[in-house]
Specification:
There is one protein chain. Strand 3 and strand 4 form a beta hairpin. The longest helix is centred in the first third of the chain and has 18 residues. This protein has a domain of 145 residues: Alpha-Beta Plaits (2-Layer Sandwich), CATH 3.30.70. The protein contains six helices and six strands; from the N terminus they run H-H-H-E-E-E-E-H-H-E-E-H. Strands 1, 2, 3, 4, 5 and 6 form a six-stranded mixed sheet that branches. The protein is of the alpha+beta class.
Length: 209
Amino acid sequence: MYVLPQIALQRVIQNGISVMKENPALLDYIFDSYNKSMMSDDYGPAYVAKIKAWFLETKIPAVQAWSYNVQTMPQISIKLANESEDESKASMGDFLMNGDTHNVGVGVFNVSLDIGIHARKDSDEVLWLYYIISYILFTSKRTAEGLGLYLQTFSASDYSRENGKLPDNTWVRWIRFNCTVHNLFLQDPHLTIDEISSTIKASSTNEDC
């Protein structure tokens, strides 16, 4: 399997949002801290009910890249930050198995993806979505592994305005999602020295004609 990390992570998040909309009691679990002593006076069950109503009534797309159109907010975006082959696991002629007609090669890549949480800053939507997405990432590790994303970790930044590109009232919080993927690919049979020489001679003869 050749892994498509951006698409895989998009599907993980889309599926997680769908599961949560079908099971809104999960939001009670995520935001139960608002009901604890020392917090319930300012928040409490009414505030959690507000979060649930907003989440269930609001369309929250998970997309590749993102739009500057404020009408598309709130929005979850996925974009590639970095993808590079793991040098510690790279070598000439890496292969998983031999076959009669081909070898199956394997390449190990370290991937970093940026998940953007875009919403209005004058409410707590960015904060709510951050904890919802972090819960999805933690509880969907097996799902992500099934799509080829291994050794998953993430870190997050505070609010920003994406260098002033967005209106004053629309902000973003970024999650940096790191994982490892094992890309499998078909390799041509290894040519012998004699076969390489014959190929070079044949090419030279054709060019002379």
